[in-house]
Design a protein that fits this description.
single chain; mainly beta; Methylamine Dehydrogenase, Chain H; Immunoglobulin-like; four-stranded antiparallel beta sheet; 66 strands
Length: about 700
């Protein structure tokens, strides 16, 4: 057996400049929105802390945003922000405190002495900086250079909120109410008399009035926490995640709730009224006050601005690229993206993005689908919307649906359109959404997560009861989960006669219409599968925390394909023309050419070779593509990888099980920025029959 060993070290080829670009994922410039959970204001600068997307800065009242996270770890969750002079502080989940001395251009760790890195609140009092953590309060007197614990007297150390009022410092805790320190945190005393709800999330200070937002109500103290009284008339029984006092123009107090939006009080909390005109996301997480401007950070909906004390709101997300992507739909060359801030349409391959929400009165979009020239959006508590002009306008299409229907999944089968709801019901429309009829009620105790259509079979995935099958357009269903050891199904995909299910326990394969299932997760190092997509003989799985995996052999084995992908929480897939797009749970949309991962591999003949061999590529030199032939005499695990002159991987042409035979693999440089030079291709085969191990390397030349 011939084996060639070649040192892939520093090799010089005269007069050729070699600057190859490695194949990898690239983040697009959108969509906009996402989780905004903290703010800080410094003059005309507004900083927004996000859940997994780091920090963004706006210098023009939210008209546009730029990333401001250099020095922060990837996917940083920023729970709190604070300003002290020219210093900017960020409290993060798991990373402690970071400091910027140049207006957010760069950040450095400032956590020495901070024994708990989960920072939930920050407050500034003179030259003192306080941090609230799950392990009590900490004080820094030197701009975060060092920290000391200041929790004496804190009988509950889960600090969720901090407030400064004169020389008084208050902590709001989860389960322990409010504590007061009058000596810079040296000691604390309980200050919760009358506070009937002790899960405290937020504070606001107005003169001598101190307000506390809790898990269900707002409370007011006029005597530095000595006693409290409820101040919630007109408020829903909802978590009050944020409070803000705006002195201009009329002295208003605002409360941000968990699903009911913003409420305003003009009389120190005696009465409240909703102020949500234009606020299409009611999951409020943070406020910021800048002169007469009031900003709201929402859960997956991004930032909204009111210039009239909450009377009306406008979305201000341009450039805020940490959007939470829930779904995709492809119509001809258009790629539509569903998010918590509505529907977006990218152009120039994701370089620019347009929000297409006119008429979409509910922008919490969970599902998208295309049927002919019609585009449908399924929303949270808003039912279904229809666009017949590529998202330019939307109209409600929910006749026959119950009020406040949450639509989680679509399926199209001929002229039939199905939706799966949060209540476990399936509805059918035969007239493009003009009206809906119940196909099945209470199909599951949970909700419908996904659909797949295979011929006349309609499969429904559920979040706890496995997979159901209907052969009569949803009129009746049967359970088809034998062998499915995890019944939390999040994605379904069909490839020929193979049906794949992505679950919280990995991927499963059925070759008999769901009658039985087998595990298909070898190599899947993260088994929390959230999405599946098929491209030819390639199957991709998106996971929660593990990124993207690829299988070229129907799930028999998987390989991670995450080069360049810094955010590994995958929520959705789409294939548009020659590009694979992934939607993330807080970092927008990423893209990668399919050719980087799905190279055409063709079996040439049925004549079985007698030896392993790797042929010289042809043509050689080449531009822009070349063919590499190889022979496998026995069923083997095969990889064929192209490297640059420094031994760095450019493309993985083959990765999987191959039967005995002769094969062609094509390598094209169309999607790579490669300069003229020498490149190498390496074949490795491990026989499944005789355990023979074969390796050979070939050399080829690219001439531009």
């Amino acid at each position: 057996m011939k084996t060639t060993r070649l040192f892939l070290g520093v090799v010089f080829w005269a007069a050729i400049n070699i600057t190859p670009l490695l194949a990898q994922w690239v983040q697009t410039n959108g969509p906009y929105g996402g989780y905004v959970i903290s703010f800080a204001v410094s003059g005309t600068n507004l900083f927004a802390g996000t859940y997994g997307g780091g920090i963004f800065l706006s210098t023009n009242n939210g008209t546009s945003w730029t990333a401001s996270s250099t020095g922060l770890p990837p996917n940083t969750i920023v729970r709190a922000l604070a300003v002290s002079g020219t210093n900017r502080f960020a409290g993060t989940e798991g990373g402690g405190v970071f400091l910027s001395t140049n207006n957010g251009m760069s950040w450095t760790a400032a956590s020495t002495g901070l024994s708990n890195a989960n920072v939930q609140a920050l407050a500034v009092s003179g030259t003192n900086l306080f941090a609230g953590t799950a392990d009590g309060a900490f004080l820094s007197t030197d701009n975060g250079t060092s920290w000391t614990a200041v929790s004496t007297g804190l009988t509950n150390t889960d600090v969720r909120a901090l407030a400064v009022s004169g020389t008084n410092l208050f902590t709001g805790t989860w389960g322990g109410g409010v504590f007061l320190s009058t000596n810079t945190g040296t000691s604390w005393s309980p200050a919760s008399t009358g506070l009937t709800i002790t899960n405290v999330r937020s504070f606001a200070v107005s003169g001598t009035n101190l307000f506390a937002g809790t898990e269900g109500a707002v409370f007011l103290s006029t005597n530095n926490g000595t006693s409290w009284a409820a101040a919630s008339t007109g408020l829903p029984s909802s978590n009050v995640f944020a409070l803000a006092y705006s002195p201009a123009p009329a002295g208003n107090l605002f409360a941000g709730t968990n699903g009911e939006g913003v409420f305003r009080s003009t009389n120190n909390g005696t009465n409240w009224s909703p102020v949500n005109n234009g606020l299409t996301n009611g999951l409020v997480r943070a406020f910021a006050v800048s002169d007469t401007n009031l900003f709201v950070g929402t859960n997956i909906g991004g930032v909204f601005l009111s210039t009239n004390s909450g009377t009306s709101w406008t979305v201000v997300n341009n450039g805020l690229t940490n959007g939470y992507v829930t779904s995709f739909a492809v119509s001809d060359t258009n790629l539509f993206v569903g998010t918590g801030a509505g529907v977006f349409l990218p152009s120039n391959n994701g370089t620019s993005w347009t929000m297409v929400n006119t008429g979409l009165t509910n922008t919490l979009v969970l599902a998208l689908t295309v049927s002919g020239t019609n585009l449908f959006a399924g929303t949270t508590e808003g039912g279904v919307f229809l666009s017949t002009n590529n998202g330019t306008n939307w109209t409600a299409a929910s006749t026959g649906l119950p009020p406040n229907t949450i639509v989680r999944a679509f399926a199209v089968s001929g002229t039939n359109l199905f939706i799966g709801t949060n209540d476990g019901d399936v509805f059918l429309s035969t007239n493009n959404g003009t009206s809906w009829n119940v196909a099945s009620t209470d199909l599951t105790n949970g909700y419908i997560t996904s659909f797949a259509v295979s011929g006349t079979n309609l499969f429904a995935g559920t979040n706890g009861e496995g997979i159901l099958l209907s052969t009569n357009n949803g009129t009746s269903w049967i359970a088809v989960s034998t062998g499915l050891t995890n019944h939390d199904v999040r994605g379904l995909a069909v490839s020929g006669t193979n049906l794949f299910a992505g679950t919280n326990g990995g991927v499963f394969l059925s070759t008999n219409d769901g009658t039985s299932w087998t595990a298909a997760s070898i190599g899947l190092s993260n088994t929390s599968v959230r999405a599946l997509v098929v491209s030819g003989t390639n199957l991709f799985a998106g996971t929660e925390g593990g990124g993207v995996f690829q299988s070229t052999n129907n799930g028999t084995s998987w390989t991670a394909v995450n080069s360049g992908l810094t955010f590994l929480g995958i929520s959705a897939f789409a294939i548009s023309e020659t590009t694979l797009f992934v939607g993330t749970g807080g970092n927008g949309v990423w893209k990668r050419p399919l050719s980087e991962m799905t190279t055409l591999v063709e079996r040439l003949s049925t004549d079985l070779p007698t030896n392993f061999s790797l042929d010289q590529n042809y043509p050689n030199p080449f531009n822009p593509s070349t063919t590499i032939s190889y022979q496998i005499p026995e069923a083997s695990s095969v990889t064929l990888i192209v490297y640059d002159i420094l031994g760095k991987e450019i493309a993985k042409l083959v990765n999987g099980e191959k039967d005995a035979g002769t094969y062609n693999a094509q390598f094209s440089t169309d999607n790579f920025q490669l300069s003229s030079g020498i490149y190498f291709y390496r074949l490795e085969a491990l026989s499944k029959v005789s355990s023979k191990h074969y390796t050979e390397v070939g050399k080829m030349a690219l001439l531009r």
